[in-house]
């Protein structure tokens, strides 16, 4: 048993190494990638999300967060390749080969929207079987979600393929609400995102929910643990720049939001950007779109690497 497990791991390591060249950021992605092979892709994703949000208004927020948690998990070594926006966050446990990223602290009892991704995938498989990757579903869903909530639109770059591994170590290293500003900046810089990207992308906390025990108030208004609160207490469901007003008033929910203004080092780095975006929603929208495209370009698998999963929860060839 131990010997055969070791053999499987060696095979996996070799398979990883074969595909293990560090991909160039944004290599072959294109906004027209599915124009010929699945021209209805955008409309299909949009209509599933529109239906889902009728009963669950939080779905757009939950979906954009999945794209973030997918893209930020990136480790490449000689033996293990794990790419950025590769759909890894969607894989369920299938031990020993696949240890799901859904169980790391940043995701457990927190990341959600997976059944909606399944519905999108089924609808796409019906319309154009084997064409649209799960990683691209998350990128499309993120843009559509922002747009449906009143935010900017942008041309989503497409053509990502799905990975066949997860990376728990990297998922454990996702940005955390108790990270100080310099750690947040480093985690973003490590994936080529600068201070403007950090401030713009955290602007996604303009919608969606947070467990009260993660907030700066820490359930001190007598809420039961696990109570959900709005991330943006001014306009909780609208994608706008009110999030930055919250920060200016000292009323951001997460420490990791507030530090962009309050950290001693913020004055020279992130604080002026917070002021800018609070003062000018157009400026925020423009930068948010640019930063989303940059985030979506974190080491995608392209060309013949990876695969197009049939089911976003499982790799195609499980029975090695
Ligand atoms: C700077 C690093 C970030 C940290 C530390 C962080 C942390 C968090 C935390 C703690 C929550 C609440 C989770 C819960 O209570 O279950 C949350 C929710 C959320 N985050 Fe972030 N986040 C960061 C960046 C981002 C980025 C870059 C995006 C998207 C572009 C994003 C989008 C969201 C959304 C939309 C929600 C609400 C999700 C829902 O209601 O299901 N966050 N984040
Ligand atoms: C909230 O309070 C609990 C219990 O006092 C503590 O363990 C936890 O670290 C606090 N969380 C935050 C985000 O401050
Ligand atoms: C968490 C992690 O390992 N991030 C890596 C992502 O990729 C960049 C660029 O290759 C590395 O510098 C980071 O260390």
Structure, described:
This protein has 320 residues and is mostly helical. It has one domain (2-296): Orthogonal Bundle (Peroxidase, domain 1). The chain contains 12 helices and 4 strands. The strands form 2 sheets. A two-stranded antiparallel ribbon has the order 1-2. β1 and β2 (81-82) form a beta hairpin. It starts with a helix and ends in a 24-residue tail after the last helix. The relative contact order is 0.17. The structure holds protoporphyrin IX containing FE and 2-acetamido-2-deoxy-beta-D-glucopyranose (2 copies). The site of protoporphyrin IX containing FE has 25 residues, from α3, α8 and β3. One 2-acetamido-2-deoxy-beta-D-glucopyranose binds next to loops. Heme b binds at residue 205. Ca(2+) 1 binds at residues 70, 73, 84, 86, 88, 101. Ca(2+) 2 binds at residues 206, 232, 235, 240. It comes from Eleusine coracana subsp. coracana.
Describe the structure concisely for a colleague.
A hairpin with a 4-residue loop joins strand 1 and strand 2. The protein is mainly alpha-helical and about 325 residues long. The protein has a single domain (about 1-295), classed as Peroxidase, domain 1 (Orthogonal Bundle).
SSE map:
Elements: H1 2-18, H2 41-55, H3 59-71, E1 75-76, E2 81-82, H4 114-127, H5 134-148, H6 168-171, H7 181-189, H8 195-202, E3 209-211, E4 228-230, H9 242-248, H10 255-262, H11 271-279, H12 281-296
Antiparallel strand pairs: 1-2, 3-4
Helix pairs in contact: 2-4, 2-5, 3-5, 8-12, 9-11, 11-12
Protoporphyrin IX containing FE binds next to helix 3, helix 8 and strand 3.
């Amino acid at each position: 048993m131990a010997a055969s497990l070791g053999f499987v791991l060696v095979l996996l390591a070799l398979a990883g190494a074969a595909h293990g060249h560090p991909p160039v950021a944004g290599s072959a992605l294109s906004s027209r990638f599915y124009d010929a092979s699945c021209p209805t892709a955008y409309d299909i994703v949009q209509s599933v999300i529109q239906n889902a949000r009728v009963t669950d208004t939080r779905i757009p927020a939950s979906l954009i967060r999945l794209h973030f948690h997918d893209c930020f998990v990136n480790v490449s070594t000689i033996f293990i390749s794990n790419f950025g926006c590769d759909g890894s966050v969607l894989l369920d446990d299938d031990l020993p080969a696949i240890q799901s990223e859904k169980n790391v602290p940043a995701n457990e009892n927190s990341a959600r929207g997976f059944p909606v991704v399944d519905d999108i995938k089924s609808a796409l498989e019906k319309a154009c079987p084997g064409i649209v990757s799960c990683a691209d579903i998350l990128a499309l869903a993120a843009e559509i979600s922002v747009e449906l909530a009143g935010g900017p639109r942008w041309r989503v770059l497409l053509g990502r393929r799905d990975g066949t591994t997860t990376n728990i170590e990297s998922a454990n290293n996702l940005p955390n609400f108790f990270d100080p500003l310099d750690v947040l900046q480093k985690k973003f810089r490590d994936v080529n995102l600068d201070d403007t990207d950090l401030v713009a992308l955290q602007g996604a906390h303009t919608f969606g929910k947070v467990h009260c025990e993660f907030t700066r108030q820490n359930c001190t208004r007598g809420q039961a643990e696990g109570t959900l609160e709005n991330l943006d207490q001014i306009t909780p469901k609208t994608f706008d720049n009110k999030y930055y007003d919250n920060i200016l008033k000292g009323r951001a929910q997460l420490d990791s939001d507030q530090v962009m203004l309050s950290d001693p080092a913020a004055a020279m780095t992130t604080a002026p950007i917070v002021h800018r975006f609070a003062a000018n929603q157009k400026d925020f929208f423009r930068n948010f779109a640019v930063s989303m495209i940059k985030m979506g370009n974190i080491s995608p698998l392209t060309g013949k690497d990876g695969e197009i999963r049939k089911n976003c929860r499982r790799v195609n060839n499980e029975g090695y």
